[in-house]
Every structure is written in structure tokens, then in C-alpha cells.
């Protein structure tokens, strides 16, 4: 049983990474392995809405990290999406990557537990948290609960560790993620393995 964590911050070992390591430690305490994947700080293309991924299951752009990350999502049992806050929104590269990952590789994550984590010096966290949660909700995933909004504060990694409430929230995410993964593991091979799927209706406001 394993969890993939995507660190979307442009800083490989910064505040977002520190928050994810706290989640990882709690997962390890409860017998769940994890891997933190850094999105990197090279340019990430935005989605152009070409729908090419519908035919191939991969994004048509193969010159950045998105497809490689997408393939790693295939065998995970749960997911954590971490972003830094820039101008009261998740950093741009993370949003671009999430758009493309969920269009091209969302099938791998359906019906699995997920949580979003955001990091800021001071403000913009709840708005950023809301943006990331929408990817989870639209993809029929299981939102992992916690004890407060999934955020940490600080300008430096050592500041994050001083945010006692933020640290406790990260630990709660790890604990609840482990619990849900184990429940789903026990449901395999039974009628509870997956929900009854309701066909999606698609309507436009203007016809």
C-alpha cells in the first residue's frame, strides 16, 4: 500500500515539502509507504483543450514532467497534492500540471483517497486549498478528512515545524489516509470495492 505525493512548489525542499514529509512520517507509522515527487522548476505547459489525451491516455505535450508523473500515479493507493501559495492561488506550474494530469491520467485516481495541502507565509491558503480540492471532487475521489484546513505557515522549512496546529493537521491527514486505504484494501473482492457508477450527464447552459 502506497501513497504518491506531488510537491508542486518550485522549491524542492521548501515549506511544501516539509509539510508533505510530516504526512509521510505518519503514514510510515501506520504501515503505509509513500513517495514525494517534485514537479520541478522547469516550465510546465498549460492545457490547450485539444482532447488529444482522450485517444492516447497521455498528454500530447511530452516535453515536461506531466506524463512521467502521470504514469507513476497508476499503482498508488492514495494521493496528496501539495502546492505553494502565489498571489492567493496555487503556484502556476502546479495548476498547469493538475489540469493536464487529471484530464490525461485521472482514470488511475478514480475512487481512491486524496488530499490537498497548501503552504504560505501568511495568507491565501484557503483560496488555494479550494482550487486543489476541486480536482479531487470532480474526479470521483475520496476526500481525506483532517482536523482543520490543510495548510501550514512559514517562510522557511523550520518555520513550518513551529506551526504546531499545521503539523497536527498534516499528521491527521496521514492517519486518516492510512485508515481509508486499509478500509478500501479490506473491501477488495467484495460488493463494497467500488461505488455503483452513475452515468454522467453533460449539458450546456447555452444550446
Give a brief outline of the structure.
With 207 residues, this protein is an alpha/beta fold. Helix content is 41%, strand content 17%.
Would you mind describing this structure in some detail?
With 207 residues, the chain is of the alpha/beta class. Helices cover 41% and strands 17% of the residues. The protein is built from 7 helices and 7 strands. The chain has helices spanning 15-29, 53-56, 66-72, 92-105, 125-138, 157-162, 164-187; strands spanning 2-7, 33-38, 78-86, 89-90, 113-120, 142-143, 151-153. Helix 5 links the parallel strand 5 and strand 6 (142-143). The longest helix has 24 residues, at 164-187. The mean pLDDT is 97.
Helix coverage percent: 40-55%
* Overall pLDDT level: 97
Give a count of the beta strands, DSSP E runs of length 2 or more. 7
Beginning-to-end CA distance, first to last residue:
46 Å
Order of helices and strands: EHEHHEEHEHEEHH
**How would you sum up the global shape?**
globular
Structural class: alpha/beta
Over all CA atoms, what is the radius of gyration?
A: 17 Å
Portion in strands: 15-25%
Q: Which ranges are low-confidence, i.e. pLDDT below 50, for 5 or more consecutive residues? A: none
Describe the sheet with the most strands: 7 strands, mixed
H/I helix tally: 7
Task: Please name the defining characteristics of this protein.
207 residues; alpha/beta; 7-stranded mixed β-sheet; 7 helices; 7 strands; 41% helix
Amino acid at each position: 500500500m502506497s501513497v504518491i505525493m506531488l510537491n508542486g512548489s518550485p522549491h524542492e525542499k521548501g515549506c511544501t515539502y516539509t509539510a508533505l514529509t510530516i504526512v509521510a512520517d505518519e503514514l510510515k507509522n501506520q504501515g503505509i509507504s509513500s513517495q514525494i515527487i517534485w514537479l520541478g522548476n522547469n516550465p510546465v505547459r498549460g492545457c490547450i483543450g485539444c482532447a488529444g489525451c482522450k485517444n492516447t491516455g497521455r498528454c500530447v505535450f511530452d516535453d515536461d514532467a506531466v506524463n512521467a508523473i502521470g504514469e507513476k500515479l497508476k499503482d498508488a493507493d492514495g494521493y496528496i497534492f501539495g502546492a505553494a501559495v502565489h498571489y492567493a492561488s496555487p503556484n502556476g506550474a502546479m495548476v498547469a500540471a493538475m489540469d493536464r494530469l487529471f484530464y490525461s491520467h485521472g482514470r488511475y485516481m478514480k475512487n481512491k483517497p486524496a488530499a490537498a495541502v497548501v503552504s504560505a507565509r501568511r495568507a491565501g491558503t484557503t483560496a488555494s486549498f479550494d482550487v486543489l480540492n476541486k480536482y479531487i471532487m470532480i474526479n470521483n475521489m475520496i476526500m481525506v478528512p483532517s482536523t482543520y484546513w490543510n495548510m501550514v505557515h512559514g517562510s522557511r522549512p523550520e518555520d513550518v515545524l513551529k506551526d504546531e496546529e499545521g503539523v497536527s493537521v498534516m499528521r491527521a491527514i496521514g492517519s486518516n489516509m492510512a485508515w481509508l486505504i486499509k478500509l478500501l484494501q479490506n473491501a477488495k473482492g467484495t460488493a463494497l470495492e467500488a461505488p455503483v457508477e452513475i452515468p454522467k450527464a453533460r449539458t450546456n447552459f447555452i444550446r
